[in-house]
Amino acid sequence: MLRSCVMSSLPLIEPDTALFLDFDGTLADLAPRPELVQVEPELVGTLRALHTCLDGALAIISGRPVAELDGFLQPLRLPAAGVHGAELRHDGEALFMPPAPGITALMPRLEAFVARHPGLRIERKSVAVAIHYRQAPELEAQVRAMVADTLHDVDGLEGLPGKMVVEIKPAGVDKGGAIAAFMRMAPFEGRKPLFAGDDVTDEAGFVVARELGGVGVLVGERATAATVSVTGPAALRCWLHRSAHALLALRAQRGGKPQSVSSTSSETEDSL
């Protein structure tokens, strides 16, 4: 698989990196509907190897709930921030989740709007709700206007536009805040943060990574606060695979336990 990779000018991941990765459009290619996303078979082994070589300093930072991320990446249970940072899991078990103020009361209006427009899809998350218009891109302006009008007199919630989606989530929560929170905790603390993402919802993460002396990696092409970019998810995955192999080789040179990127050893799985 590595022989088919397009080489990237992005430097490989260093052992002192705190690695933060978006999921949709970054680790996995986008799909017409969120539940149709496919995870490349080699990816789980690569993430496991990176988690080991970075002494646990790898976290997934996504708009999806953490439980969905676990489903796609099983058997891994990595540190993760879900719903743009509204959910946070650091130790592999405990999940911090603030209340979702007022979202339940908004659902009838949102559901009625979606029902009137074929092609729209509503997705209820743990503490948020998303309206997808990937199948009806001509409705973008109407979706944005409806969300803005719905939230006009609502406290504690805000709208967040993304790729073919507008989400309603707890106010003041974003991926930058999630990365900053992880960087205050072991094993992330004292490392150089690197965050890779594709969407405008990842911009707050790029800003924080740069403020903390790290790197933002945009997956795709557009105006961005990221430091560098790669062409798409396939190129990002290739870079992760190559980095994992290089880190494993370095670990072996330094006397660490040899491990294959595709390893499924119970010792490694138990650590996650």
From TrEMBL:
Keyword Manganese among record annotations: no
Chemical reaction(s) catalysed: alpha,alpha-trehalose 6-phosphate + H2O = alpha,alpha-trehalose + phosphate
PANTHER family xref list: TREHALOSE 6-PHOSPHATE PHOSPHATASE
A biological process from GO: trehalose biosynthetic process
Enzyme Commission designation: 3.1.3.12
Pfam families: Trehalose_PPase
InterPro entries named in the record: HAD-like_sf, HAD-SF_hydro_IIB, HAD_sf, OTSB-like, Trehalose_PPase
Similarity section: Belongs to the trehalose phosphatase family.
Annotated pathway: Glycan biosynthesis; trehalose biosynthesis
Function: Removes the phosphate from trehalose 6-phosphate to produce free trehalose.
This protein's name: Trehalose 6-phosphate phosphatase
Organism: Cupriavidus metallidurans (strain ATCC 43123 / DSM 2839 / NBRC 102507 / CH34)
Cofactor section: Mg(2+)
Keywords: Hydrolase, Magnesium, Metal-binding
GO molecular function (one): metal ion binding
